[in-house]
Design a protein that fits this description.
Order of helices and strands: HEHEEEEEHEHEHHEEHEEHEHHH
Largest sheet: 6 strands, mixed
Low-confidence stretches: none
Structural class: alpha/beta
Helix content: 25-40%
Distance between the termini: 33 Å
Strand content: 15-25%
Strand order of the largest sheet: 6-4-5-7-8-9
Number of strands: 13
Shape: elongated
Length: 363
């Protein structure tokens, strides 16, 4: 989990950057200078030119205002038919800060490895040289979540890759990341361009809380003091609680099954209460503010019956069917007084909700 303070409250500037880019130094279509100036025009603060198997520190457009993060992309070919590879981007500090790689240092591709675990020496070389390894485009590479899990020691993996997304419809929905996280592996997800043509660039990026130097940026990436985006800007974030607790009789359709409604609603409230308790605990631990919402599906309390009939029609069930999908009839736009009544021990959640509303720009 991203820690709120690290990502948003670090007291450092927020820098926009791309960690994976190609130029004519390998298989890109444009020169390093052209690519750097394109990113400068898009408001980027830093850029890693990670051409295949050739390391780069050099800034070919030093007057552009874009800082170059040293880097390279390395690769492993796994035995078997089809496209089955492991690509690793390596980003590092300046040489004076302990980077073990040299400008224009060239690397060989590791070929015909029998499984993903044999890529470990390449990962170890990157770490030993003071660099951070980034697991690249797993879908395009034909990888599985198990292969990612077989290679421990990766602080970062791509969850969006612009080149793969626009050219192949791959590496755009973070499916592998979910599976890896659910297996208990802590790894941060990054959005990158991996641009080989100019029109690939500027679609995915990271916003990093760091000073404007490679060492500070790397530390932020290592500790999760960043977020990834394909467009939205995140100034802050909150945790959410809801509670569909009923304080009085609810109007149901005359032919509805009231006992089924009551059983369903009591089950929902119990689940929400357990969930809310966990959310408040997480909020206290990480210093995150909590807001209260009502998951609104209709405007007025009186619209509950119409909404319920719509659900029955959608699911092709009769109104009195005890096993059909049901809502609580309470998903309407509640008043401030009603919301306070739901969370009497946490009045701050109402105040925080108003705080969010005040942050929304008016159009």
């Amino acid at each position: 989990m991203i820690i709120h303070q690290a990502a948003f409250d670090g007291g450092k500037p927020v820098l926009k950057g791309n960690l994976h880019t190609h130029t004519t130094r390998s298989d890109g279509r444009s020169t390093p200078e052209t690519v750097i100036r394109q990113y400068a025009a898009m408001g980027y603060d830093f850029l890693a030119l990670t051409d295949h198997r050739v390391y780069n520190y050099r800034n070919d457009a030093p007057d552009s205002g874009v800082m170059i993060l040293p880097g390279v992309e390395l690769d492993v070919t796994l035995a078997g038919s089809g496209n089955h590879v492991i690509h690793i981007v390596s980003v590092g500090p300046e040489e004076k800060d302990g980077n073990g790689f040299r400008q224009d240092q060239r690397f060989e591709s590791m070929k015909e490895m029998k499984d993903a675990s044999e890529a470990a020496p390449l990962r170890d070389l990157i770490l030993r040289s003071g660099n951070l390894p980034l697991f690249c485009h797993p879908e395009w590479s034909g990888n599985t979540a198990q292969e990612i899990l077989a290679l421990d020691g990766f602080p970062l993996m791509e969850i969006w890759n612009s080149g793969c997304a626009v050219e192949n419809g791959l590496d755009r929905h973070a499916a592998y990341w979910d599976e890896v996280l659910c297996a208990g592996r802590k790894i941060f997800g990054v959005a990158v361009d991996d641009g080989h043509q100019l029109w690939h660039n500027g679609l995915g990026y990271v916003m990093v809380r760091a000073e404007r130097n490679p060492a500070s940026i790397l530390e932020a990436l290592r500790t999760g003091a960043f977020y990834s985006s394909c467009g939205p800007v995140i100034d802050d974030f909150y945790l959410e609680v809801s509670l569909h607790k009923n304080f009085g009789p609810v109007k149901l359709a005359s032919c509805d099954n009231r006992s089924a409604y009551k059983k369903n609603n009591q089950g929902v409230v119990r689940l929400q209460q357990r969930s809310n308790e966990a959310i408040f605990n997480i909020a206290r631990e990480l210093g995150i503010k909590v807001i209260a919402t009502n998951d609104i599906h209709f405007v007025s309390r009186d619209d509950g019956i119409a909404h319920d009939v719509m659900l029955a029609v959608q699911w092709k069930k009769s109104i009195d069917n005890p096993g059909r999908r049901r809502y609580s009839h309470l998903e309407y736009m509640k008043t401030e007084k009603e919301m306070h009544r739901l969370f009497p021990e946490h009045p701050e959640v109402i105040e925080n909700t108003l705080e969010v509303a005040e942050k929304v720009e008016r159009y």
